[in-house]
Structure formats: C-alpha cells, structure tokens
Amino acid sequence: MRERLETLRHTQRRHNMEQTMNRKNVYSVCGMCSVRCPMMATVEGNKVVYLQGNPHAAGIKGALCARGAAGGALVADDERPQFPMIRAGARGEGKWRKVSWDEALAYVSGELSRIREAHGARSILLSDRGGPFRDMHRAFLKALGSPNYCNHDSACARNVQHAALSLFGFGRKDVFYDYKNAKHVVLQTRNIFEAINVKEVNDLLDAKDAGCKITCIDVRTTVTAAKADTFLMVRPGTDYALNLGVIHELITRDLYDKDFAAAWIQDLDALRAFIAPYDADFAAAATGVPAKRIRDLADQLAAAAPAVIWHPGWMTARYGDSFQVCRTAYIINALLGSIGAKGGLPQVNKPGHVGKKGLKQLVDLFPKPEAKRVDGVGWMEGRGHFEAGPGLVNLAFEAIVSGEPYPIKAYIAHRHDPLMSFPDTADVKKKWDNLELLVAVTYSWSDTAWFADVILPMSPALERESMIASKSGGAPQFFVRKRALTPRFDTRADWEIYRDLARHMGIKELDFASIEDIWNFQLQDTGVTVADFEATGMIKLGGPLLRPVDDKTFKTPSGKIEIVSAKLEADGVASLPPYVAPASPPPGRYRVSFGRVGLHTQGHTVNNPLLFAQMPENELWINSAEAAKLGVDDGALVTVRNGSHAGQIRAKVTEGIHPETVFMVHGFGHTLPVESRARGMGVADNELMPQGINNWDKGGGGVCMQEHFVTVEPA
Ligand SMILES: Nc1nc2c(c(=O)[nH]1)N[C@H]1C(S)=C(S)[C@@H](COP(=O)(O)OP(=O)(O)OC[C@H]3O[C@@H](n4cnc5c(=O)[nH]c(N)nc54)[C@H](O)[C@@H]3O)O[C@H]1N2
Ligand SMILES: Nc1nc2c(c(=O)[nH]1)N[C@H]1C(S)=C(S)[C@@H](COP(=O)(O)OP(=O)(O)OC[C@H]3O[C@@H](n4cnc5c(=O)[nH]c(N)nc54)[C@H](O)[C@@H]3O)O[C@H]1N2
Ligand code: SF4
Ligand SMILES: [Mo]
C-alpha cells in the first residue's frame, strides 16, 4: 500500500515537473478592448493556463481586468467565425458558403481590382478601430491609391480630439493624464472605474491612497461616483453650463494661474468678457448642482493646482455641445496651469524626445493618394478644421448614398462594427446599399460581419502576433504581441491577411515572408532588435521625462493656447458659443443615456461564455419617483420604445439617476442566430436612436447620440 502511494506521489511529482517544464510564458497584448494592456500568457501545449498583465509593465501591476481575463474563453468559444465565408444569399440573410483562404482572398482582391478599374482607387473605403496596430492595413489601402482611411472615432472621442486641436494645435494624445501625481481629479462624463484602462485605474487608486481628491460629475451614481470624494449629479446635457460657471469662478475670483495664463493663454480677455453672465448661480440653475458646491470645487481646484486633471471626456459623442464641454474642460486645465505639469496633463514623450528613432512605417512606403478625402475632411466647406487622419466615417457613409463628392463602392470594415456602434442598424444598412463589396475582418460575429459579402476571420489576440507597437507617455516604449497559441480554427493574423491580399494584387512592398521580417523592417534605425523583446516583451526607450511647456509646445499659429480659434471660425464654428439649455424630454419621455460596465466591451463580449455568465443582459436604470409614476417595480420587465423600435428590458429602479434620463449599458440586444447566448438578451441602445447617425456636431465631428427620447411602460 505504502509503496503504491510512494509510486503514485512520485508519478504525480514527475507529471507536475514535466508540466512546469512544458509551460512557457509568452509576452502578448490583451485584445479584449481597445486599451491593449501588455499581457503575459502562461501556456502549456496549446492551452492557456494563466493570463496576467505583463509584470514588467509599469502601472499594470500584473493585473488584467475581468474582460482581459476572459481572453481564453474567447479562444475556447466555437461561436465565432471559424473559416472564410462568402455570402450565398441576400445581404444579412445569413446564408454562407465556406471557402478556402485562397478563394476568399482571390475574390476580395479580384473585386477590389475590378472596382478600382471601374470607379478609381478612391472608391475604396477602409475603417478600423484606431490604435497602434494599423500600419499594415493603412499601408495596404494607401498602396491601392485610396485616401479613404477612417476609424470609429466619430462615435467615440472625436469631440475631445478636435477640442484639443482647436486650443493647442495638437491632439488629445499629445498630453497624458498623470493620475499618479495628481492632487485633484475631476471625472466628467468619465466613469473611470468601470470604463477601464488598467494602468489608469491603478494609478488613480494609488493617488487616492496618497490623498488625491476625486470629483465625479455624472447623471447617475456610478462606481466612480461611489469612490469619489465629491459627486455632482447634473441635469443631462448641461455640462457646458457647469464648466462655464467654474471658469467664471476661477477668473472673477482670481483663482487661476496668472503666470501660466500670461505666458501661454491667448484671448483671456475675450474669455473674461464671454463668461460674465455665466456665474455659479447661473450654472446652478442650469445643472441642478448647488452654487456653493460649484464655488467650493473652484476653491479646491485652485488649492491643488497645477496637479489637477479635469478630464475632457472619452466617449463624448453625446450632445450637440459636447465639443464645447471638452473645450471648456481643457480651458479649465489651462487656467489651473495643469497643461504640461506634473500631476496634471504633461506632454507625452515620443522616441525622439529621449534621443531615439521611432519605428519605421509601412504607410510611408507609398505616395500620398491624389484624390481628396470622400468625407470632405480637411478640404470641404465647413470641414476644413477637422483632422484628416481618421476622418469622419459617418460622412463617408453619406457618400455611398449620394455619390458626392464621388461614389464609394467597396468597404472593408476591419475590427469595426458600425452597425452596432452607430445609431439605427436598419438606417446604416440602407446607406450601404450601393456598395458592391463589403468585407468584414473580425474575430467575432457582429451585425456588420453578418451583413457582409465576405468574412475574413481573424485569430483572437492570443492566437496571433501583431506588428510592434509604440507607446508614448512619460517614458516612451516599444512593445510586442507574440503568438501564444496555434489557431484552433482556420483563422489568420491581420498581417497575414493583408500580406496575402497584397500578394494577390502585386504590391511587393507588403509581401513579407514572416512577422519577423515585418518587425525587422519596423526596427531598422532604432538600435533595437527583435531579440531584445525576449526578456520582458517591451523596450523602454528612455525617460520618464517631464518637459516644461515652451515655445514649441503649442502648435497653433500664435504658439499659445488659442481660446478663439481662427480655424474654427473660418468654418463657421463659434469658439465661444452662448449656452443653450438642452431640450426637456416631452411629457412621458426620457432622454436615453448609455455607457460602459466593467464586465463587457462595447458589443463584442456579450456572447463570451465567461462574461455572459457574469452579466447576461443589461438593465434600464430609471429614477424611483418616475418608476412609481409608471407603476414599474425594481426588476420588472418594461418596454422601452422610440418610434418603430421597441425592446424589453428589466428595470433597475434607483434614486441614483437623474429623473430626466434612463440609462442602459451599450452593446446588448443581439439578434444573430449564431450567438446562442447573447441573442435576445437585453436591449440595444443604438436601436433607440432613429436615423441618429445624421445628427452630428459640426464643431467636433462627434455623432450626437444622446439627443433621443424614449417611452417606458410595464411590459
Ligand atoms: N449607441 C451607442 N453607440 C456607441 C457607443 C455607445 O455607448 N452607445 N459607444 C461608442 C464607442 S465609445 C466606441 S469606441 C464604438 C466602438 O465600436 P466598434 O469599434 O465597432 O466596437 P468593438 O465592439 O470594440 O469592435 C468592433 C468589432 O471588432 C471586433 N474586434 C474587436 N477586437 C478585435 C481584435 O483584436 N481583432 C479583430 N479582428 N477584431 C476585433 C469585434 O469582434 C467587433 O465585432 O462604439 C460607439 N458607439
Ligand atoms: N469595461 C469597459 N471599459 C472600457 C470600454 C468598454 O467597452 N468596457 N470601452 C473603452 C472605450 S472605447 C471608451 S471610449 C471608454 C469610455 O469611457 P467613459 O467615457 O468613461 O465611459 P462611458 O460609460 O461611456 O461614459 C461615462 C459616463 O458618462 C455618463 N453620462 C451620460 N450622460 C451624461 C451627461 O450628460 N453628463 C455627464 N456629466 N455624464 C453623463 C454616463 O452615465 C457614464 O457613467 O471606455 C473604455 N474602457
Ligand atoms: S482594459 Fe481590460 S480588456 Fe482592455 S486591454 Fe486592458 S485588460 Fe484587456
Ligand atoms: Mo470608445
């Protein structure tokens, strides 16, 4: 008996040892949301046994969020596109022909060539999700000769980006939020503890432990509100009034940073004159926040300055004046001297700032296409102030319908689901009617993939490698995503897909034999080699560096922060428009508001087995007093309706939401038969915004998604 036990133990020990020996750690990058945290995957054979944040990455502390931890469940899930498919029925009918990669790529490249021949290269549109991994597909589009690269951002942060550009002449990512050293952080329309970026959450919690104050401004009591020192519930859509009130306080009570303003702020007198009527009492009446609390906030910020962050917002595609909310948020930072300051919004450092060379880019191998952008961005009347880079994809969709300024005939939606991320699926589908080719490059099912002509299935992050990425910040870095697992299905990495398309179309510059060849191309001149990534998956290039603001900082014509922007005014956009109160909901209606939750990413994780188990459906937050009027109890099923669209959802009855609005987490209400778990669960907020894609902000470019009113009744 004893002997047998000993043998058993011995076998067990040997087995464990072998297992440990077969284990390896692979440096990767989480792909479960667009934040892309550096990650380390422990794999055994072709299985992930443990996922964690890259322990070498500063601020990550080895952590991933719940969604990141569910990356393995995505790989294990059979309910994702497993092989290339070409549509066999009508668009959206769900009839597919399984094809080989060869056939799929030959078909797509053949159609692209035909369409280019017939309508010119400019008739090809590609949109993606932005971020550090886009060089290959951008280069592919440029090689074809099309200027029409877009991303998702008119449904996300365009207003913030254009606010930064209008004031500073540089974009929102040319400064970063130095949470770690902040003394007061104001989170306005920013639910940082649920709309997660792991490093930012860690840094802010550390700062909080060290005494940093948090003020949260929201229309409901979020997790962020619960952790904040001060919570200000505003009437939905009145943030501009609040910010004007704060600016009034800072200026009229001399609480602002006079040295910084004298040196770097242009048009302070114009601002002073403009804010004269907008005092704290005015702001209180507009927002519902008591005037005393607005005055107190101004005092607290002045005391903590310049280590203050007034967050300009992230998902700000909400109201007709969201652009001005972002602009005034930046102006408050400027008045507090926090632009460029430690604990505020320091300038990011790129490789050049620490004496290093940046990555070489594939996109630079090709000449600038001659055609002007189809969305009119950068050249059309009223659109000259917009940033060309990712354009405004909603306006490119308009060109599909109108053929103006010229037609778009082919569209590649790369890691982008516009049918869920823009309002009113049926309306957007109608806009796509004139397309002769619609391709979805994706790792999960989505409304867009289901409606496409061709699906090119991408491998999930753990099953693919990506191009080396560059991260700017206090200390600039390169980081790499290596392949942790062999793909379970017939899916490919994006670099393979575009390399093969390029091969089919005779684009030699993109015909790389391996990912190593691409990495070597990127790293030439940098002094870094592929082998250097072995140790930690990342390369710190230098720093951290805090660069004081100087006469090269602001890229505006004057070299200063321009409150009055000639570029905006030239396009008929007022720099300082008067405040206009948002419409009150018509009787019996509620403004529909939306946002994120810690357990899901946008629309693409609801069907993830692990995350679905944690949160299978969304619920409708509704104010208790309103619910009582409607006879709706907490947890009851209600019908929420706008026009012809209605859905059933459970009510979350709470005092923690403003009575004018109802709130739901975005991304639910899936309808596809291929997603057995997500199908029919909860309601899609985007369906409650009829033809909402047509209502967009002429100043900031964001779609105004919270300008819709719904009815609620017991189901
Ligand atoms: N009504 C309403 N609309 C919204 C929002 C809202 O709250 N309400 N939120 C807005 C915001 S903030 C944003 S950013 C957009 C997001 O909109 P999208 O960019 O469309 O959203 P995602 O779901 O992140 O990604 C789109 C698709 O890419 C696929 N995908 C994701 N990651 C990867 C990857 O690593 N590789 C590949 N191949 N595919 C991937 C997903 O499976 C998904 O099908 O939506 C916006 N639209
Ligand atoms: N877990 C998780 N994290 C994510 C994502 C995800 O899908 N899931 N997506 C990532 C992406 S793409 C983005 S853009 C960011 C988004 O990050 P955030 O912009 O912080 O997230 P949201 O939840 O969209 O919106 C923030 C808050 O705005 C509030 N709000 C609505 N209307 C108003 C108003 O009129 N005034 C004020 N003051 N507040 C209002 C909502 O109640 C919500 O709590 O999150 C990123 N991180
Ligand atoms: S925030 Fe979460 S889901 Fe997003 S990249 Fe980081 S770990 Fe992944
Ligand atoms: Mo976003």
TrEMBL record:
PROSITE patterns the record matches: 4FE4S_MOW_BIS_MGD, MOLYBDOPTERIN_PROK_1
Gene, per the UniProt record: phaA
Family: Belongs to the prokaryotic molybdopterin-containing oxidoreductase family.
Coiled-coil residues: none
SMART domains from the UniProt entry: Molybdop_Fe4S4
Keywords: 4Fe-4S, Iron, Iron-sulfur, Metal-binding, Molybdenum, Oxidoreductase, Signal
GO molecular function: 4 iron, 4 sulfur cluster binding; metal ion binding; molybdopterin cofactor binding; oxidoreductase activity
SUPFAM superfamilies, per the entry: ADC-like, Formate dehydrogenase/DMSO reductase, domains 1-3
Matching InterPro entries: Asp_de-COase-like_dom_sf, MoPterin_dinucl-bd_dom, Mopterin_OxRdtase, Mopterin_OxRdtase_4Fe-4S_dom, MopterinOxRdtase_cofactor_BS, Prok_Mopterin_Oxidored
Domain 4Fe-4S Mo/W bis-MGD-type: 23-79
Name the record gives this protein: Thiosulfate reductase
Source species of the chain: Solidesulfovibrio magneticus (strain ATCC 700980 / DSM 13731 / RS-1) (Desulfovibrio magneticus)
